[in-house]
Design goal:
The protein is mostly helical. The chain contains 6 helices and 2 strands, in the order αααββααα. It has 2 domains: 65 residues, Arc Repressor Mutant, subunit A (Orthogonal Bundle); 39 residues.
Length: 127
């Protein structure tokens, strides 16, 4: 299984670009990075990501096109679960409380209303 904490900063940047584009060549990734390293460095990192199970490739003529092996939603859930287990003692309540504490002044009334709907839905599902 792929562990979310196993990615370096550059690997996360590359994965963000691949997720945003849906599929990407090394050249696509180079164009999406600020101050990118060399073509061969990106190619090697993408091969490493493939070896770790995060990417797969298909051939398009002479070039490889890389695709994520899991949907972004699955990866988000896995990363959040890892973070909750590591930093919040497996507690959804503590995780949400921390997020709200960090961002409460930035949340709009519409966002707070949508969060309340999610809480109400979770209550209904739990009963």
């Amino acid at each position: 299984m792929v562990t979310p904490g196993a990615l370096s900063r550059r690997e996360r940047q590359i994965m963000d670009i691949v997720y945003r584009l849906g599929r990407a060549t090394v050249q696509d990734v180079l164009q999406g990075l600020d101050g990118p390293p060399s073509y061969s460095s990106i190619r090697a990192t993408m091969r490493l990501l493939e070896g770790k199970g995060h990417l797969k490739h298909i051939s398009d003529g002479p070039k490889y096109v890389y695709l994520p092996t899991r949907t972004r939603n699955i990866v988000r859930k896995s990363a959040l679960r890892h973070m909750m287990d590591t930093f919040f003692n497996h507690s959804v309540e503590t995780t949400v409380a921390t997020l709200l504490d960090m961002k409460s002044k930035d949340l709009t009334d519409d966002e707070l209303d949508r969060i309340q709907v999610l809480i109400n839905d979770a209550r209904k599902r739990g009963r």
